[in-house]
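Customer escalation, tier 2.

The customer says the design service returned an amino acid string that "doesn't look like it belongs to this structure." They asked us to rerun it and document both sides in this ticket. The original structure tokens are below, unchanged.
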């Protein structure tokens, strides 16, 4: 078991869905289970998440974000990582850039999950102009975690469905790195129909690695948030980029597998909670 005197602290800037496992209801428990103190800056509050569910309530918290971060600054709070996900407007993108400027230090990590779309489609509430704004946010990040749809949007290129070629994935990774982040983790990567995983790229060493698992049938909401939260948890526990991606792939796949076997409603998210024991073993925390 690891013995650490300094507890890492992460600022998580995401929306909060009361029901349906995604965003803050995924990020906070995963980070906490990994021994990390998680501070939440909600961008919006929804009754449920928006994937496949109609009639949800939505309260925009844009006007609350600056007062929250100014209060945090007045308390001299310091963060080992800043982790952003769903942002609901151009103004929120600008506020998050201000947050980066306010809380960035030489030794902390900024991870941007550029939540915009999936399966080749931009989420209905977003525009291509929003994607351009997200690109400027990624320029300020140390590490970005897009899926292949979001990668195409960030690069203003057409989306290509898989299976992919090594040449396409490696070209995409290098172009994403050229936007500014030192590290890129690309999700939804596969070269064969029965596999699914992630590709990692470290721009400082021009190193590319892959992590795959067996593909599980179906489409599951919130898995991007599960993956990114697990990835950051591993990075904060001093694992390398590739090791962290492997831990995140295993944790996400295990959570999906439990959900698939239980045949629960796919819209409600995956059973990540009961995957914690193996996750903590991989993190060497137990």
């Amino acid at each position: 078991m690891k013995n650490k005197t300094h507890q890492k602290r992460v600022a998580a800037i995401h929306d909060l869905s009361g029901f349906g496992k995604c965003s803050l209801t995924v990020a906070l428990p995963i980070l906490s289970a990994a021994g990390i103190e998680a501070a939440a800056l909600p961008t919006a509050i929804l009754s449920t998440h928006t994937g496949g569910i109609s009639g949800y309530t939505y309260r925009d918290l844009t006007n609350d974000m600056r007062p929250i971060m100014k209060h945090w600054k007045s308390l001299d709070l310091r963060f080992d990582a800043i982790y952003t996900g769903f942002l609901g407007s151009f103004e929120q993108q600008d506020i998050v850039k201000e947050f980066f400027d306010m809380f960035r230090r030489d030794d902390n990590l900024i991870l941007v999950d550029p939540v915009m779309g999936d399966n080749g489609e931009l989420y209905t509430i977003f525009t291509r102009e929003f994607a351009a704004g997200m690109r400027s946010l990624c320029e300020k990040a140390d590490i970005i975690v897009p899926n292949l749809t979001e990668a195409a949007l960030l690069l203003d290129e057409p989306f290509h469905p898989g299976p992919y070629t090594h040449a396409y994935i490696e070209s995409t990774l290098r172009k994403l790195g050229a936007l500014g982040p030192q590290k890129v983790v690309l999700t939804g990567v596969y070269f064969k129909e029965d596999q699914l995983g992630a590709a990692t790229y470290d721009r400082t060493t021009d190193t590319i690695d892959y992590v795959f698992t067996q593909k599980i049938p179906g489409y599951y909401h919130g898995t991007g948030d599960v993956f990114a939260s697990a990835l950051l948890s591993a990075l904060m526990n001093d694992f390398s980029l590739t090791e962290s991606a492997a831990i995140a792939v295993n944790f996400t796949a295990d959570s999906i597998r439990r959900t698939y076997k239980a045949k629960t409603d796919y819209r409600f998210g995956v059973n990540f909670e009961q995957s914690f024991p193996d996750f903590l073993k991989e993190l060497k925390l137990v």
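Tier 2 assessment: The sequence is consistent with the input. The longest helix spans residues 241-262. Residues 9-283 form a domain with the UDP-N-acetylmuramoyl-L-alanine:D-glutamate ligase fold (CATH 3.40.1190.20). Sent an explanation to the customer and offered a walkthrough call.
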